[in-house]
């Protein structure tokens, strides 16, 4: 009963919040509307619990672990994100970046201060669920200390869980803003991508002439965009991806033709031999593999 009701209620709430995002409201008016929407949903949710008290301990645990935090976290998120955006400096990218990083550090400190309970949340633990998500033992020493905790609504851990969910969402929003400041950048640089992850360095460490040969081969066989992409554009894209200046395509092709001591397609030849060698090695008889495959 609780799951079905909460899913329907959450769907209605998300639809209401989505419609608000399409309205032209001031930041303060938008926050008030969002808070009102979430508060109304929470009122309906707690009203259901008042009318239909828990009869099964597992129902109670499931409610405070999975249902209540999904709603309360929205209340925390919209408030926190509004306060964060209100403080964004207007003096330029450098000042904004400093502000964003400062907020990220404060979120990290928050998680570190609640490391035991945060780890339990991230690991999706269950051994202490009866302690954390049951109102029968809210004074247990393992319960977190939460200033904004309202006993009538839930447990201290359920309240803290809402903050974990909200702060993670704010952190992701900040990381996306940082990405917007730096731009996508070449993959040869370490940057923040739109999801907030760090792109690891990808760098072409072979000879430039080998990459030039490879790109010409890709272009001449029409492997990209059904062959409609121009060679100049393809050189720019691949060069940017690997952080290499491939120069003018024609000059690179002339360099390939000018090879005298080795094959004009040395790199493609080398790749062919490497692939064939790998195939031969995989096809070769391996007594250990045969033993494992046959089970003796």
Chain-wise SSE layout:
Blueprint: H1 2-21, H2 27-51, H3 57-86, H4 93-113, H5 115-122, H6 129-132, H7 156-182, H8 208-220, H9 231-242, H10 249-257, H11 266-283, H12 287-294
Helix pairs in contact: 1-2, 1-3, 2-3, 3-7, 4-7, 8-9, 8-10
Keyword list:
296 residues; mainly alpha; 12 helices; elongated
Give a written overview of the molecule.
This protein is mostly helical and 296 residues long. It has 2 domains: 2-182, no CATH class; 208-294, no CATH class. The chain contains 12 helices and no strands. The chain has helices at residues 2-21, 27-51, 57-86, 93-113, 115-122, 129-132, 156-182, 208-220, 231-242, 249-257, 266-283, 287-294. α2 packs antiparallel against α3 and α8 (208-220) packs across α9. The longest helix is centred in the N-terminal third of the chain and has 30 residues, at 57-86. The protein is elongated. The two termini are 53 Å apart. The mean pLDDT is 84.
Shape: elongated
State the distance separating the first and last CA atoms.
53 Å
Portion of residues within helices? 55-70%
Domain unit count: 2
Give the SSE order as H and E letters. HHHHHHHHHHHH
Unreliable stretches covering 5 or more consecutive residues:
none
Strand % is under 5%
* Backbone CA Rg: 29 Å
Main sheet attributes: strand count, strand direction, barrel closure: none
Tally the helices. Answer: 12
Helical/strand content category:
mainly alpha
- Report the mean per-residue pLDDT as an integer: 84
The number of E-state strands comes to: 0
């Amino acid at each position: 009963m609780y799951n079905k009701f909460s899913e329907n209620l959450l769907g209605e709430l998300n639809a209401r919040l989505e419609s608000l995002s399409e309205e032209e409201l001031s930041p303060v008016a938008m926050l008030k509307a969002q808070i009102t929407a979430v508060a109304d949903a929470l009122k309906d949710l707690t009203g259901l619990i008042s009318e239909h008290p828990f009869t099964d301990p597992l129902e109670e645990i499931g409610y405070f672990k999975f249902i209540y935090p999904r709603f309360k976290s929205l209340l925390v998120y919209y408030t926190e994100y509004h306060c964060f955006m209100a403080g964004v400096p207007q003096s330029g990218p450098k000042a904004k970046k400093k502000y964003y990083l400062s907020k990220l550090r404060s979120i990290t400190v928050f998680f570190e201060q609640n490391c035991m309970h945060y780890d339990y949340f991230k690991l999706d633990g269950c051994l202490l669920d009866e302690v954390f998500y049951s109102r029968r033992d809210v004074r247990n020493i393992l319960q977190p200390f939460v200033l904004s905790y309202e006993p009538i609504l839930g447990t201290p851990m359920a309240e803290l869980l809402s903050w974990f969910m909200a702060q993670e969402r704010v952190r992701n929003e900040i990381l996306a803003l940082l990405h917007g400041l730096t731009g996508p950048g070449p993959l040869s640089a370490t940057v923040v991508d739109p999801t907030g992850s760090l792109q690891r360095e990808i760098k072409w460490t072979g000879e430039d002439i080998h990459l030039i040969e490879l790109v010409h081969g890709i272009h001449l066989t029409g492997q990209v965009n059904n062959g409609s992409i121009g060679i100049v554009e393809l050189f720019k894209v691949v060069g940017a991806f690997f952080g290499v200046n491939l120069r003018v395509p024609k000059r690179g092709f002339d360099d390939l033709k000018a090879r005298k001591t080795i094959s004009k397609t040395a790199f493609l030849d080398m790749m062919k031999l490497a692939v064939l060698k790998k195939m031969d090695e995989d096809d070769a008889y391996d007594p250990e593999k045969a033993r494992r495959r046959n089970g003796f």
